[in-house]
Amino acid sequence: MRIDALTVFGFKSFGERVRLEFLGGINAVIGPNGSGKSNVVEAIRWVTHTARARELRAQNSAELIFHGSSGRSPLGMAEVELELSGVQAPELPARLNIARRVYRDGDSEQELLGRPVRARDVQAALRGSGLGVGGLAVIGQGEVSSVVSADTRTLAGYLEEAAGLSKLTHRRTQTLERLDEAHRHLESVRLIESELAARVVALEVEAAQARRHAELSARRALLESALAAHRQQGLKDEIARLTEQETRLSQASVACAAELQRTQAELETVRAALVAAGVQDAEYRRAAGLAEAARARLEAAESLCARLRADRARLEEELASLQVEPPRAERPDLAAQSAALREARARCADLEARATRSERALREAEAARAAAAQRQAAQDARAAARLAEQTRLQALIGEARQALEALEGRLAPLREGTATLEAELASKLQGFETARGEAARLRAEAARLEAAHAPLERERARLEAALNAYARYGEGPRNALRSGLPGIIGSVADTLSVPAEHEVAVTAALGRRLEQVVVEDAETARAVIAHLKRTGGRATFLPLDLIRPRIRRDAALQREHGVIGYASDLVPSDPAIISQHLLGDTLLVESDDVAVRLARRYAARPRMVSRAGEVLEASGALTGGRLRDAGVSVLAEQRRLQELEDELGRLEAALARARSDLEAAAARARDLEAALPDLRACHARAEADLRAAEREAAALQSRLETLTAQLAGSPPEQPADARAEAVTDPARLEAELTELRRQLEAARAAERDQQEAAASARAAQLLWERYDEARARADRVRSRLAALEADLARQSADLEAARAERDAREADLAAHARPEVAPLEARRGELETRYADLTAQLGTLRADLDHARLSRARREAALEALPEVEAVALEGEPRAWQAELARTERDLHALGPINNRAEADFLIESERLAALRRDLSDAQRSADELLEAVGGLERLVSEQLEAAYGRVRRAFHAHAAELCGNGDLEAVRSEDGRLVGLRLAVQPREKRTRSLHLLSAGERTMVGLAFLFSLAEAPEGGGGLPLAILDEVDAPLDEANIRRFAGFLKLLAGRGTQFILVTHQKATMEIADALWGVTTDARGVSRTFSIRAEEAAGLVG
Fold first, then answer.
1. CA 220, chain centre distance (Å)
2. Which residues contact 173 (CB under 8 A, 6 or more apart)?
């Protein structure tokens, strides 16, 4: 046998169909590491069913399929086809095709000669060829050295396979198994034979009893016939009376039944109409509910759009009202203005003081001048004049002091009022700035809250729509929950309130039961099931009137460390029975370690689930792993929706508070801003009054000082010349005073100008402050307007969608007319009452009829029990017949139960027993003959195996001497001397060790190859190694051993052995008749190319 071709498609790295054709000599498969060379050998092992997926570097058969690469998509199947020739089995043709396929879903198939077969058929066809189970034709990487360490029975199996005895051995084993089965069957047949013999004896006794019973029964029949003739006439009369009564009752019953049937038909029609009306009414209510919801959504959308438009109009009005143009006046320098005003005031005060002194000097000069003029005329009246002057001065001083005191009394309240007004103005300004800052802060806070509210509202609407659509549910629960039929409460997930820390545990504990539909009663469940039959899908329902709580309370368990509690207590539901029914027997624990510990400690344990989602059933089954749609489950979405609604509630409350506070702050700012001009005017008037009073007080003080000085400084009398020299020129003083007064008026005018400039500067500063605030507010308003425009555009689109949905829902509602149910229910009540009355009447009639029929039947039965004879020739009276009949009955009763078929059964079972004994004898004789034939076959196999052992032993001795040193193949025999195993004994050259475990990898490889090559001599005449597939067996060999290995390959190839080698060694490549190169293209797919030795020589030449 040889391999002609191998076709591979989709197997491991072969993403495209590849065909490798092999010659009869040495074929080498070469290529770089990872290119897929070994996949060629593994494909042969896989198609011949000599290796499982795990032995081919895969976890399962689906992993053998090409997984795809960067330039090639994955395939859905893997296929390998092997073409063999030179097949020498008589039941098979000379050429043999074997194919095997595996699909991504795990399904597989195999073909032999183009026909689907079982795996055992392929193995049977290849048995004895080396490619079958237990053959050494295919040796993978590192397996050649494992041959050396194989057990003795495995080595003997290799010898049987190479000698062509494996088929005989397999058939002998099958025959012995069948013989064992036949012996067991014979034992059961013998047991049946013994039981049948006992039954035949029992039937013989029963047949005798049956004959006696027949005699007594005949006499009893004669007596009963005589007595029956006596009673016959009375029974006939009673039957006639009862027949007449039955006819009358039957007619009445038929009439009542017809009326009842008509009433029932009408009642069913009314009920059907009520059901249809109920369905129509439910559809109407559903349509009305949807229309109302659509109208509510439309009103909400219109309200939101209106609010947005109002906000936009308000902001546009506010933007239009803001002063966004800068003031015409330049931004003033208040510090410079204040300094100039203080300087002008200081100059005025200085000039006023100088004018007062000059005026005093002028008056003194005029007085001195008058005194000098009068001194010559009225020397005597000087003293009196001086006294009058002093009196006048004192009077003036008193008046000045009184005026000054009155003025000072008026100045104190003016100063206090001015200070109060200044403090109030400062307080108002500070309050205005605080209110304006608070309003700005509150506007920013409101804008932030509004900006945060919009995405949360959209997220809430998305989650609510997804949950209401039940998108994550299966088809059946989704259609049931969306049907709108009355009586549906919701899904299990809708009724549960699951804390966030228990979501994973509850999801794992309930699984798909979260989608089960909770309904009010069983009738609702049946109605929804009928709906699902029309729309599609299948669902599980929990009727509240049928389900029961499954609560268990294990106090000892709940006190254990790591136990959290029963899930029904931790996860409430509405209604509560849902949680008690589904989770009442589920215990929540911290981890799977706790669950396993409790399961080992408590035999009567509940179902347990850990926080991480591992479930330990009460039966002991443990479930775990990654949950489906972990973190994005229905419970998580429900919790997120509740959190969003709570957060939206908090945001809306905070937004309402912020808007209220903003309105209050804006009102305070407006009130303060409105009060500031009046307060500034009052402050300015108070300052002006205070400055006027201060100037008047300064003038009075100056005058008082002058008068005091005049009073204290009256000069003594001097000579005329001296006094004339002391008098200052009044004209000069008056000119100086006039100049000082002119300068004082100019300074006061400059002070007034500075005051007006300071007031203008303060007004301009206020205008600039208002301009800055308006410009900042305008920027904020424009930003808010842009956001409002975007929100308004989105809400307008939502409004149009809501309006379209409202129109569609209203059109749908208009298409559903609400049925009139009350008349139908009233008619149903009438018909049900009529039906009950008719049923009772019919029951009474039928009871009477049944009683009449029963009486008649009893009479007829009694009549029929009597023999149909007119007269019986029997001596005696009926009383004597009755006594004899009683004695006969007692005799029959004493016989007991009688087998009337005993006579026939006795004959049948006797014949069956004889036939069974003949079959047992034949079967035993056949089994003995077959056992003798198996013994002859076993002796033949043993003889041929001994002959093959001798040939292989001699060949191994020779090959070991050539390849690795001294070697021998030792036989392991059973107690009766049969060969049952082989043992390799090798001593490498120049070494004393004979332990195979101490050999190097190369030495073990050479020993294994020596044994493999020796198997070629197993059959008589050679040919025990028709083909060999070796995967890099020369990898651990040095150059010298490779040359020896190559020499043996050429030798055996010359004797007809076909070799398929996977190698990296140049020396091995050189002896190959054909080379198959395996490489990987840019897409990561294995590709092949071939070249024959003569072609290579031609290319070199």
1. 84
2. none
The amino acid at 69: S
**pLDDT number for residue 728:** 62
- Which residue did the predictor score with more confidence, 269 or 678? 269
E strand or H helix that includes residue 1092? strand 1086-1092
Give the C-alpha separation, 622 to 592, whole Å. 9
Rounded distance, CA 29 to CA 1061, Å? 6
| Cα–Cα distance measured from residue 1026 to residue 143, given in angstroms and rounded to the nearest whole number | 19
Which residues are documented as binding site? 32-39
Determine the straight-line distance between the first and last CA of the chain, rounded to whole angstroms.
34
Give the span between the Cα atoms of 245 and 163, in whole angstroms: 98
Reported as a single tens digit per residue, the pLDDT across 345-369 is 788 778 777 778 877 777 777 777 7
Average pLDDT over residues 1010-1019: 73
Rounded CA-CA distance 335/355 in Å is 30
**Six token digits for residue 852:** 């009449």
Long-range CB pairs of 369-372 (<8 Å, 24+ gap) are 369/727, 369/730, 371/723, 372/720, 372/723, 372/724, 372/727
Q: What b/e sequence results for 389-416 when a residue is b if at least 16 CB atoms lie within 10 Å of its CB, and e otherwise? A: eeeebeebbeebeebbeebeeebeebee
Residue 410: partners with Cβ closer than 8 Å, 6 or more residues away: 693
> What single string gives the DSSP state of each residue in 963-978?
HTEEEEEEEEE-TTS-
Reading the block at residue 584, the tokens are 């009442």
Q: Quick one: which of 569, 603, 601 has its CA closest to 586? A: 569
When pLDDT is cut at 50, 70 and 90, the band that residue 517 belongs to is very high
Residue 152 Cα distances to 293, 683, 972, 973, 986, angstroms? 84, 123, 7, 10, 15
| DSSP strand pairing (2-9 vs 77-85) | antiparallel
Contact 539, 477 (CB under 8 A): yes
- According to DSSP, the residues that pair with 543 across neighbouring strands are 519
Structure tokens at 88: 């020498």
* Residue 689 predicted with pLDDT over 80: no
| Mean pLDDT of all residues in 823-829 | 83
Buried/exposed code over 674-691 (b: 16+ C-beta within 10 A; e: otherwise): eebeebbeebeebeeebb
Mean pLDDT estimate for the chain: 79
Q: What is the DSSP string of 539-588?
A: --EEETTT--------HHHHTSTTEEEEHHHHS-BSSHHHHHHHHTTEEE
Peptide bond into 730 cis (omega under 30): no
- For residue 682, give every residue at least 6 positions away whose Cβ sits within 8 Å of its Cβ, in sequence order, or none: 421
Residue 511 DSSP one-character state: G
The per-residue pLDDT for 630 is 37
What's the residue count for the chain? Answer: 1101
Residue type for position 140: G
Residue type at 127 in one-letter notation: R
In the block, tokens 């215990």 appear at 587
Phi and psi, residue 224, nearest 5°:
-65, -35
Q: Is a pLDDT exceeding 60 seen at residue 714?
A: no
DSSP assignment of 803-838 = HHHHHHHHHHHHHSPPP--HHHHHHHHHHHHHHHHH
How far is residue 1027's CA from residue 44's CA, in Å, rounded to a whole number?
12
Q: From CA 45, how far away is CA 12, in angstroms rounded? A: 13
Beta strand pairing call for 586-589 and 607-610: parallel
Residue 434 has pLDDT above 50, yes or no: yes
How many Å apart are CA 872 and CA 278, to the nearest integer?
74
Known binding-site residues for ATP equal: 32-39
CA angle 588, 593, 594 (to 5 degrees): 45
| Rounded Cα–Cα distance for residues 413 and 417 (Å) | 6
The residues with which 541 forms a beta bridge, in sequence order, are 517
**H helical segments located in 866-901:** 878-895
Is residue 341 helix, strand or coil? Answer: helix
Between CA 673 and CA 682, with CA 676 as vertex, the angle to 5 degrees is 165
Q: Are 656 and 475 in contact (CB under 8 A)?
A: no
